[in-house]
Amino acid sequence: MTRRKKIYEGKAKILYEGPEPGTLIQYFKDDATAFNAQKKAVLEGKGVINNRISEYIMTRLNAIGVQNHFIRRLNLREQLIKEVEIVPLEVVVRNIAAGSIATRLGLTEGQPLPRSIIEFYYKDDKLGDPMVSEEHITAFNWAATQEIDDMMAMALRVNDYLSGLFGGVGITLVDFKIEFGRVYEGDFSRIILADEISPDSCRLWDSTTNEKLDKDRFRRDLGNVIESYTEVARRLGIMKEMPTVIQGGVH
């Protein structure tokens, strides 16, 4: 990988130039960060699990018509993706009160929301990814009105699909964050799903015990982060392809 040109490095992934035009290689790191990277650690095997879970979900979303940047997994830590122009927004879908919405609105964590709620956050680490409205998005030209509509429609489709997928294996989808990018075809562009979908970007609770199986285990010093991520992969039926080095210790 060192021979390939690095395009971008984020907190959890690195993007390298791809083998052909219009492609990139997305490398999943073991780095874990929280609270806008104020808390950091290296969790051995995290990148491997997230690569595999994200591949599994993106492949299935493609199959139901939710177009995304995933092309194929290359190895344990890398996948080939379409190059997109990232929309500078994080799109969060919430089903149950947890995290910032519970704090912000004085809700009890675990309280079901009246309906699924979509929130937009401006992607800027220096500003702490502030929450923004559709007015901000169109005024500052981060996305057009039609693009906002497309992102919201896709976000709800992803929510419906993932709620069923995880619900079927005894996991409650509390909320998740996704990102979108533009792909250009001549003078026209369209919005597709990008980034990743993994326990790093979703809140996932055991449906029976409400035990957290996601990044909150790292944020809140609950321990067993890798074991919980591995448990998600095991329930989705993708453990058989996971390296044995990270298969132990799930309770």
TrEMBL record:
GO biological process: 'de novo' IMP biosynthetic process; cobalamin biosynthetic process
Enzyme Commission numbers on file: 6.3.2.6
Top EC group: ligase
Domain SAICAR synthetase/ADE2 N-terminal: 6-235
GO molecular function: ATP binding; phosphoribosylaminoimidazolesuccinocarboxamide synthase activity
CDD domains given in the database record: SAICAR_synt_PurC
Record keyword ATP-binding present: yes
Pathway, per record: Purine metabolism; IMP biosynthesis via de novo pathway; 5-amino-1-(5-phospho-D-ribosyl)imidazole-4-carboxamide from 5-amino-1-(5-phospho-D-ribosyl)imidazole-4-carboxylate: step 1/2
Catalytic function, reaction form: 5-amino-1-(5-phospho-D-ribosyl)imidazole-4-carboxylate + L-aspartate + ATP = (2S)-2-[5-amino-1-(5-phospho-beta-D-ribosyl)imidazole-4-carboxamido]succinate + ADP + phosphate + 2 H(+)
Keywords assigned by UniProt, alphabetized: ATP-binding, Ligase, Nucleotide-binding, Purine biosynthesis
Source superkingdom: Bacteria
GO cellular component, one term: cytosol
UniProt xrefs under InterPro entries: SAICAR_synt/ADE2_N, SAICAR_synt_PurC, SAICAR_synth, SAICAR_synthetase, SAICAR_synthetase_CS
NCBIfam families per the UniProt record, alphabetical: purC
Family: Belongs to the SAICAR synthetase family.
The protein's name in its UniProt record: Phosphoribosylaminoimidazole-succinocarboxamide synthase
Gene behind this protein: purC
